[in-house]
Design brief:
There is one protein chain. This protein has 508 residues and is an alpha/beta fold. The protein has two domains: 3-172, Leucine Aminopeptidase, subunit E, domain 1, CATH 3.40.220; 194-507, Zn peptidases (Aminopeptidase, 3-Layer(aba) Sandwich). The protein is 37% helix and 19% strand. The strands form four sheets. Strands 7, 8, 9, 10, 11, 14, 15, 16 and 18 form a nine-stranded mixed β-sheet that branches. The chain has a six-stranded mixed β-sheet with strand order 1-6-5-2-4-3. A three-stranded mixed β-sheet has the order 12-13-17, with helices on one face. The longest helix has 26 residues, at 176-201. It binds ligand BES, manganese (II) ion and zinc ion. Manganese (II) ion (MN) binds next to loops. Residues 281, 283, 358, 360 line the site of manganese (II) ion.
Length: 508
C-alpha cells in the first residue's frame, strides 16, 4: 500500500535551486513562445529543442543538464495544449507521471509558478488545479503489481517502491496556501480512487463478496464511519430474493454491506449510493462466451467506487449524510444455479421472470434500491453499475451512461462529469421502452430483448425506485475497466469516485 502513498511538499525556491530527479516545466502553446527560451537559457539548456516541442497536451520532452546551472538532474518540458481546459491540465498531469514511473524517477518537482494564469484561463481556482495535478499524478503513476511473485507476501517488500515517492510543487509564496489545500484534497480523492482500482483489479479468487465487506469494514474503522455487514442468514430473513437468486449457483455466500457516514452537526442532505458488487460475472447458466470473460472480475466496479466515495466523503468531512449500499456475490453456473425461465420474488415483493441469468446486476440492485429507499428515506439515490455491454456499444469506453427521473439531478451529475473529467451522457427513460420488459408470468422480465439494452436495464431498475423522485443510475460498463491496448495502462480505473465526490462537494 505504502508504495503509492505520494508525499507532497510545497516549495518556494528559485528554479535553479530545485533539486529533484525530474523538474517539470509546464508550457501551454502560447506561453511557450514567450517564456520557454528564457527559462531554458537561464537553466543552461540548449534552446534547439523548441524546434520540435509543440506543447501539445501531454507532450513530454526530457532534457539532461547535470552540472549546468540547475540542481535537478533532468528537466521535462510538459505540454498543456492551449492551456484553456482542465481536461488538458489533467491529461498533462497523467502523462508526466506515467513518464516518471517509466523512467523510475521517484522525486518529481513541478513548477507551478504559472498556475494562477492558468487558473484564470481555464476558469478554475488554483486549488482546483492543484487537486487535479495531484489526482493526475496518482492516476498516471498507478500500477497494479501486487500479484507479481515476490510482492504477494506484503511483509516481504523489496524496498523498491514503484510510483512517485515525492511530488514537489514549486509555487509563489502568495499561492502556497491555496495550492496546499487543493493538493491535500486531491491526495484524498486520489487515494480513494486508488483503493477502488485495486479492488477492481483483484481477480475473483482474491476477492469474494466477503472480501468487499472486509475492505469496507477496514476503511470505516480507519476513517471514522459505520459499516454494517449483512450475511447470508440475514439476507435470507430479509427476503432479498434478487441477491439470493444470483448467489444460488455460487460456492461463496453473498454479503450486503451498508457504509454509513454521518457528518458532525446537521447533514444538508441524505445521499444513498448503491454499487453493483458482482465479484465475477460468468453469466451463470446463460454463460458468457469465454473470450475476455476474465474481464468480468471488474463487475464489482460500482461497489468499489461507492466504497471509495464514502471513504472520501468521510475524509473530506463533507456536511452530508452519505450511505453506501453494496450487494455482493459472484454469478456462477452450477446444479443449484438460477435458471432462465425461473421466477423470483425480490425484496420489494415484485416478481421477476429471469429471461437471462446474465442480466444479474439488475436483480441484486433491485433489492439494494428498495432497501436503501425504505430504510433510510434518502433525499437522493444514485446507483453505479457495470450493467450492460450495450452501454459500451452506445457510448464507448470513455463515457458512462446516465439515466434519471429528475432533470435537475441529471444536469448536476452531467456538470460534475464535465468538471471531474469523468464524463457521463444522459439517455432516456421513456415509457415506450416498458413494452420490452413485460412478462407473461411475472410482474417484469429481467431482459428486454434486442435494442436499447442499457435503457431497458435502467427501466427495470426504475420499477424498484417506485415513487422516489430523485434517482439516477450510472452505467459504468465502459469507463470502469479499460481493456488491454498497446502499451497503455489497462484495468480498473476507479471511475465514479472523482465524479461523485465532485457532486457531493457541490451539495456541501
Ligand atoms: N456485467 C455485464 C455487463 C458488462 C459487459 C459490463 C461488458 C462490462 C463489460 C452484465 O451483467 C451483463 O452481462 N449484461 C448483459 C445483459 C443482457 C443479458 C440483457 C449484457 O450486457 O449482455
Ligand atoms: Mn451479467
Ligand atoms: Zn454483470
Amino acid at each position: 500500500m505504502a508504495s503509492n502513498d505520494m508525499k507532497i511538499s510545497i516549495i518556494e525556491k528559485s528554479l535553479d535551486q530545485v533539486s529533484a530527479d525530474l523538474l517539470v516545466l509546464p508550457f501551454s502553446s502560447s506561453s511557450l513562445k514567450k517564456e520557454a527560451e528564457d527559462v531554458l537559457v537561464a537553466l543552461g539548456f540548449d534552446v534547439q529543442v523548441l524546434k520540435d516541442f509543440k506543447a501539445d497536451a501531454g507532450e513530454v520532452v526530457i532534457l539532461y543538464g547535470e552540472g549546468k546551472q540547475n540542481k535537478a538532474s533532468r528537466i521535462a518540458l510538459l505540454g498543456l495544449g492551449e492551456g484553456k481546459t482542465l481536461d488538458d491540465w489533467r491529461k498533462a498531469s497523467v502523462s508526466i507521471a506515467s513518464k516518471a514511473v517509466e523512467m523510475k524517477l521517484e522525486q518529481v518537482a513541478v513548477d507551478c509558478f504559472g498556475i494562477e494564469a492558468l487558473a484564470a484561463q481555464t476558469g478554475q481556482t488554483t486549488a482546483t488545479l492543484a487537486a487535479a495535478l495531484v489526482e493526475g499524478c496518482s492516476v498516471g503513476s498507478y500500477r497494479f503489481d501486487r500479484l507479481k511473485s515476490g510482492k504477494l507476501d506484503k511483509k516481504k517488500s523489496d524496498g523498491k517502491s514503484k510510483g512517485i515517492a515525492e511530488l514537489l510543487l514549486r509555487v509563489d509564496a502568495e499561492l502556497s496556501e491555496d495550492v496546499e489545500k487543493g493538493a491535500a484534497e486531491g491526495k484524498i480523492v486520489a487515494s480513494c480512487q486508488k483503493m477502488a482500482r485495486d479492488l477492481v483489479n483483484l481477480p475473483g479468487n482474491y476477492l469474494q463478496a466477503d472480501d468487499i465487506s472486509k475492505a469496507a469494514v477496514e476503511s470505516g474503522k480507519k476513517h471514522g464511519y459505520d459499516v454494517t455487514v449483512l450475511h447470508k442468514k440475514q439476507i435470507e430473513s430479509l427476503g432479498m430474493g434478487g441477491l439470493l437468486a444470483v448467489n444460488q449457483g455460487s460456492f461463496y455466500p453473498p454479503t450486503f454491506t451498508v457504509l454509513d457516514y454521518k457528518p458532525e452537526g446537521k447533514a444538508k442532505l441524505v445521499v444513498a449510493l448503491v454499487g453493483k458488487g458482482v465479484t465475477f460475472d460468468s453469466g451463470g447458466i446463460s454463460l458468457k462466451p469465454s473470450e475476455n470473460m476474465g474481464e468480468m472480475k471488474s463487475d464489482m466496479s460500482g461497489a468499489a467506487s461507492v466504497l471509495g466515495t464514502v471513504e472520501a466523503a468521510s475524509r473530506l468531512g463533507l456536511p452530508l449524510h452519505v450511505i453506501g449500499f453494496i450487494p455482493a456475490t459472484d454469478n456462477m453456473p452450477s446444479g443449484t444455479a438460477l435458471k432462465p425461465g425461473d421466477v423470483i420474488t425480490t425484496y420489494s415483493g415484485i416478481t421477476v421472470e429471469v429471461g437471462n441469468t446474465d442480466a444479474e446486476g439488475r436483480l441484486i440492485l433491485a433489492d439494494a434500491l428498495t432497501y436503501a429507499k425504505e430504510k433510510y428515506k434518502p433525499d437522493v439515490i444514485i446507483d453505479l453499475a457495470t450493467l450492460t455491454g450495450a452501454c459500451i456499444v452506445a457510448l464507448g469506453y470513455p463515457v458512462a451512461g446516465l439515466f434519471s427521473n429528475n432533470d435537475k439531478l441529471a444536469d448536476e451529475i452531467f456538470q460534475a462529469g464535465q468538471q471531474s473529467g469523468e464524463k457521463v451522457w444522459r439517455m432516456p427513460l421513456w415509457d415506450v421502452y416498458d413494452e420490452q420488459i413485460k412478462s407473461d408470468v411475472a410482474d417484469v422480465n429481467n431482459t428486454g430483448g434486442r435494442g436499447a439494452g442499457s435503457i431497458t436495464a435502467a427501466k427495470f431498475l426504475e420499477k424498484f425506485i417506485d415513487s422516489h423522485k430523485n434517482w439516477a443510475h450510472i452505467d459504468i460498463a465502459g469507463p470502469s475497466f479499460l481493456p488491454k491496448a498497446g502499451g497503455k495502462v489497462s484495468g480498473g480505473t476507479g471511475f465514479g469516485v472523482s465524479l461523485l465526490v465532485e457532486l457531493l462537494k457541490k451539495w456541501s
